[in-house]
Specification:
7 strands; 5-stranded parallel sheet; two-stranded antiparallel sheet
């Protein structure tokens, strides 16, 4: 990353979420790294890395029962079932900026990324129900979606990953969302290069 010694003293807390099954040669991992380097040119960054591809728990009957139980009345099993969810939510709550790698798998998001969403989208924690509908609680945050695909055109009618992620972000209160696209890499060998240029064009 770039030297931040002369940057503004305010620390920008960033949560980086990687979800690609590829540990190496992953377009989204490379682009999220580039984006963080770009952001570091204008800010001092405090980055938390969450690699969801390493595995997360799925929703279970105990988990569902726990979220509908008053926190003061949860038993040990219920508290244990929510421990990972609580930790993931704390990371999102603490972040000023989310940088999320979104590889498009079979027109949608990877199962690992969906598991992360299921863990963080919790009533009374990241959104609440009101008489007029659900309201997101994670306001005043910025999200970058770094989207990469092999054959799916990002933003097209068959891209169910990007609009889904934008909707989820808005659902939990994050409405300032920027998409960085490296789509259709199987047809466009310069797709990742174009995404790099779009990162360079962003205001740091």
């Amino acid at each position: 990353m770039a030297d931040t010694s002369n940057n503004d003293s305010k620390v920008l807390k960033v949560l980086r979420v990687d979800s690609s099954a590829r540990a190496e040669n992953s377009t989204t991992r490379k682009l999220t790294e580039s984006l963080l380097a770009h952001l570091s040119e204008g800010h001092n960054l405090d980055v938390t890395l969450r690699d969801v591809a390493k595995g997360l728990p799925f929703v279970t009957p105990v988990w569902v029962g726990a979220i509908f139980t008053d926190p003061a009345e949860r038993d040990a099993a219920q508290a244990k079932s929510l421990a990972e969810s609580d930790a993931l939510i704390s990371e999102v709550q603490a972040a000023d900026v989310l940088v999320i790698g979104v590889p498009v798998y079979n027109f949608g998001v990877p199962a690992a990324l969906k598991a992360w969403i299921d863990m963080i989208a919790r009533a009374r924690e990241t959104f609440k129900y009101t008489e007029t509908g659900p309201v997101g609680l994670l306001t005043n945050k910025k999200a970058y979606l770094v989207v990469a695909s092999g054959g799916t055109e990002v933003g097209s009618a068959i891209d169910f990953a990007t609009p889904y992620m934008k909707h989820v972000m808005g659902f939990i209160g994050i409405t300032d969302v920027t998409v960085i696209s490296a789509g259709q890499q199987m047809m466009d060998e310069k797709a990742a290069e174009k995404a790099e240029k779009s990162i360079e064009a962003l205001a740091a």
